Amino acid sequence: MIFLIGVSTLTVLFVLSLRFRKQVAAFLMRSGLPRWVLYFLSSIPLIIVEEQIDCQKTWCYQVLIPPTLLPLLIFMLLLFIGAKAFHAKSVVKPIVIFSVLGIAFERFFGGLVGVPLSPIIVLFLIPYVGMGYAFISLIPLTVLLE
Fold first, then answer.
1. Euclidean distance between the first and final Cα of the chain, in Å?
2. CA 64 to each of CA 30, 54, 106, 109: distance values in angstroms, whole numbers, following the listed order
3. What is the per-residue DSSP string for 50-117?
4. The model's pTM
5. Distance between CA atoms of 90 and 141, rounded to whole angstroms?
6. What is the pLDDT of residues 63-100, one digit of tens each?
7. What whole-number distance in Å separates Cα of residue 111 and Cα of residue 50?
8. φ and ψ of 88, to 5 deg
9. Is 25 helix (H, G, I), strand (E, B) or coil?
């Protein structure tokens, strides 16, 4: 039941961020801060929200700032470096690559370690994990690239 609530919540937030990403990015850019600063500042609340939706049993709803914030910010730094190094023109390719790498990271080092790859996991959980990584990177990449 909790998984379904998380899936529906993250799906709604992801669709809203898809719909309003350019407006949010334009609003953020009016601050006058450099794009790279806005990239990281905009990723922090998205990471916090996404991690609260997918919270670990050890800290679920007990902390405001999840302990996974710093590793995810490092992952966002790698995305930033990759997007700049390869001169990304659109958010699509970096988000797809970031999501695939995020799924691989979760499978080998994160929350999916030891989870058997049953059809249910492959059909529902793995795309959900990818959507989580896409959610935390969509608006920051829009700020950076557009």
1. 38
2. 28, 13, 22, 23
3. HHHHT--TTTTTT-SS-TTHHHHHHHHHHHHHHHHHTT--SSHHHHHHHHHHHHHHHHHTSTTTT---
4. 0.91
5. 9
6. 888 888 999 999 999 999 999 999 999 999 999 999 99
7. 14
8. -60, 135
9. helix
For residues 46 and 139, give the distance between their C-alpha atoms in angstroms, rounded to a whole number. 9
Whether 21 and 135 have beta carbons less than 8 Å apart is answered as: no
d(CA 75, CA 20): 24
pLDDT tens-digit map of 117-131: 888 777 878 888 899
SS3 17: helix
CB 11, CB 133: distance < 8 Å = no
Higher pLDDT, 122 or 3: 122
**Contact residues for 137 (Cβ-Cβ < 8 A; gap 6+):** 43, 76, 79, 91, 94, 95, 98, 99
Quickly count: other Cβ atoms within 10 Å of residue 103's Cβ. 20
Q: Quote the tokens at residue 139.
A: 């608006």
Instruction: Look at residue 37 in the predicted model and tell me its pLDDT.
Output: 97
